[in-house]
Write a structure and sequence with these properties.
The protein has eleven helices and no strands. It is globular. It is 83% helix and 0% strand.
Length: 226
């Protein structure tokens, strides 16, 4: 199980540091009315969607685990997903560098409307974001394919996938925990962090997408050729 978790680290880190989802979470959390409830609903929505993705696609991908036995441990599904993810991330880096909009980004109008969101709307946004963001889709599918290829068994696979969800959402959960434990100190910290991420989301996205894009591209190509 520990080996599989180590293999999942790139997908965990990649999922966790997507700037858009963090910015949305922070904006919801620092809302003047029911901020904590909105942010909690948002994370709950994302968690439910990811659990459903695991239930549906985990079963589908587990059927392909037999492929691994005849390919020296190399699963072509995992390699193909890595290749697709690498290409998507490199395209994202290029578009951001050229100043173009990322199709996975929310329109600026949506971000300005977040303060007026109800907890239910925040929950619905959480449900929808993993479904409309292509990179989050491929991160999740790659993680599921990696778990399926390890053939851990049903219960250990479910535990590993739940750990993947928890760690992938860690940067959304930590501000919520800080808001609960240190409500007064966390307000200014969250405001400054949200403003910094909003200002620097473009260079962060370029650097992260370039590094992970090259890594996943190389891993996908080597997996398909081996």
């Amino acid at each position: 199980m520990e080996t599989v978790l180590i293999s999942l680290l790139p997908y965990i880190i990649g999922s966790a540091i997507v700037p858009l989802q963090i910015i949305i979470g922070l904006l919801l959390l620092k809302s003047p009315h029911q901020g904590l409830l909105k942010a909690t609903g948002y994370v709950a929505g994302m968690t439910i969607t990811r659990v459903l993705q695991g239930l549906i696609f985990g079963l589908i991908l587990s059927e392909s685990s037999a492929i691994t036995e005849g390919n020296s441990g190399k699963n072509p599904i995992v390699s193909t997903l890595l290749l697709v993810l690498g290409i998507l991330l490199l395209i994202t880096a290029y578009k951001k560098w050229c100043g173009e909009d990322d199709p996975d980004d929310s329109p600026p109008k949506v971000l300005t409307m977040i303060d007026s969101f109800t907890p239910l709307k925040a929950f619905v946004m959480g449900l929808g974001l993993p479904l409309v963001a292509a990179k989050l889709w491929v991160f999740t599918l790659s993680a599921l394919a990696t778990i399926a290829a390890a053939q851990l068994g049903q219960l250990p696979s479910a535990i590993v996938y739940l750990l993947f969800i928890l760690l992938a959402e860690s940067l959304l959960l930590l501000p919520i925990v800080a808001r609960i434990l240190i409500p007064k100190r966390s307000k200014s910290l969250l405001t400054n962090l949200s403003a910094w991420l909003t200002r620097n989301s473009r260079p962060i996205t370029i650097i992260v997408s370039l590094i992970f894009g090259l890594f996943f591209l190389q891993s996908g190509i080597s997996g398909l050729l081996s």
